Structure prediction request, 147 residues.
Amino acid sequence: MGAAMSDPLILSVPISSDLGALALEVRRQVFILEQSVPEALERDAYDATATHLVAIDHGNVVGTLRIVFLPEHAKFGRVAVLRHARGKGVAMAMMRVAMDVAKELGQVRFYLTAQSDKIGLYEKLGFVAFGDEFEEGGMPHRAMKTY
Prediction:
């Protein structure tokens, strides 16, 4: 019987660190193995320069996301939570920290592409979907932004 989920610890980590490697492993589990996203799509050049966050619960990395700072906005992406840790607010906690990090760095325009079945999560954070649905990594997505 697993311990109850406490509030996860959210940390910004270098992708080249041990915790960064664990973040990439979470992404591999969720996107490549579970959702069948091609590895060539999942890993990209932005990983080197993005700000990466991890969620740690009871000493284990259970979630990750990245923030790519572009001239026009901060783009949040690669939001992944291991299956056993889902439904407990991990993604919401990571996104709140990520938005705070972006604001601290002076960026107030936020953008992301959400898997269509996850839109509700981002709407709770103030994101609004726009444009047509499109396919990314074999799944339907919508672009979302804050105003």
Summary: Residues 11 and 116 are 27 Å apart (CA to CA). The longest strand covers residues 60-69. Residues 18-34 form the longest helix (17 residues).
